[in-house]
C-alpha cells in the first residue's frame, strides 16, 4: 500500500515537471508575428538635385523722361501689361511746341537769307567776268552765301532737336512687359534723365540663375550642354507642389575660384501670372545618367542613437538589424547607398512594432516603383561595368 502511494506521488511529480518544462519552452519561444515583407527595389535611378534661386526678368527698365517738364497725364492702368510703343505718360507739350514753331520761323528766315545770298553770289560771278566788280567784293558775296548755308544747317539741326523734344513729351513703353504703378503723377515736375516715372519688366520669359558646386557638376552634369535640351523644373515657395518646366540655356565659361561653383541659368516661359521676377524658387535638375540603385520605402528606415537601419528578414524568417547608408529621397522612397543588396527582404513598415531577433510570418507586399525602370541584378559571373 505504501509502495503504491509512493509510486503515485512520483508519477505526479514527473508529470508536473513535464508541464513546467513545456510552459517554459512556450514562454522562451514567442509566437511569430505577421509582418509586411518586401524585396528591396532595384531600379535605374537618376539623382535629382535642388537649388534655390530668385527669378529674374531678361529686360527690366526704370522709365525716366528725356525732357524736363510737368506731367500732364498718366495714360496706363497700373500693373497692366503693355506693348512696345504704348503711351504711358504725357508731359505738357506746349513749351516744346512753341520752340518748334519758333525754330520753323527761324528756318524760313534762314532759307530766305540763303536764297538772297546765293543770288548775290551768282550776280557777283557774272559782274566779275565783265570786270564790273572787284575781286574783293565778289569774294565777300561768296563768303556771305557760305555763312548763310551754315546758318541754315544750324537752324535745321536745332529744329530737329526741338521736334525730338516735343516727341519725347510722350513717354512710351520701350519693351513689351508689365508696368508697375506710377511713381510720379499728374501735376508734378520731372527732370530729364533723373526722375523715375515707373518700372517695366519683360514677363514673356524669366531667368533663374543658380550655382552648382564643382564636385556635383563633374559627377552628374559633366555632359550637359546649354542647347536647351536639359530639362529643369521649378517650384515656387508655397505652391503646394505645382511645378513649371523650363530648360538650361546658359552655362558660364569658368568656375568661380572663390566659391568653387559654376553659374548656370534655366529659362522659363511665363505663361501665367504665377511666375514673377524676384520670386523665390527651387530649381530641380536630374543627373544626365541613371544607375542601378537599391531603394526602400522611407518608412522602412529606423533611427537609433547614431545610425540609420532597416530590419532584414533572413532565411529563417527572423528579423536582423542592418545598418545602412542613405542617399536622397525620391517621393516615398529612399536611396540606399550601402548596407543592402538586391533581392534582400525587409520589414516594409519599419521597426514600429517589431525588433531584431523576432520571428515573423511574412506577408509579401510589393514596393511601388513610382515610374522607375527596374534594373536586373548583376550576377557574380558577369563582369562589372
TrEMBL record:
Family listed: Belongs to the membrane fusion protein (MFP) (TC 8.A.1) family.
Pfam families named among the record's database cross-references: Beta-barrel_RND, BSH_RND, HH_MFP_RND, RND-MFP_C
Topology in membrane: Lipid-anchor
Domain of life: Bacteria
Identification of the protein by name: Efflux transporter periplasmic adaptor subunit
Gene source species: Oceanimonas doudoroffii
GO molecular-function terms, A-Z: transmembrane transporter activity
UniProt cross-references to PANTHER family, sorted A to Z: ACRA/E-RELATED COMPONENT OF DRUG EFFLUX TRANSPORTER (PTHR30158), RESISTANCE-NODULATION-CELL DIVISION (RND) MULTIDRUG EFFLUX MEMBRANE FUSION PROTEIN MEXE (PTHR30158:SF26)
Gene Ontology BP, a term: response to antibiotic
Keywords: Coiled coil, Signal
Span of the signal peptide: 1-22
Protein location: Cell inner membrane
GO cellular component, one term: plasma membrane
Domain Multidrug resistance protein MdtA-like barrel-sandwich hybrid span(s) in chain numbering: 60-195
Annotated coiled-coil segments of the chain: 100-127
Sequence ranges assigned to domain Multidrug resistance protein MdtA-like C-terminal permuted SH3 in this UniProt record: 294-347
Gene3D superfamilies attached to this UniProt entry: 2.40.30.170, 2.40.420.20, 2.40.50.100, Helix hairpin bin
Domain Multidrug resistance protein MdtA-like beta-barrel: 231-288
Domain Multidrug resistance protein MdtA-like alpha-helical hairpin positions: 101-169
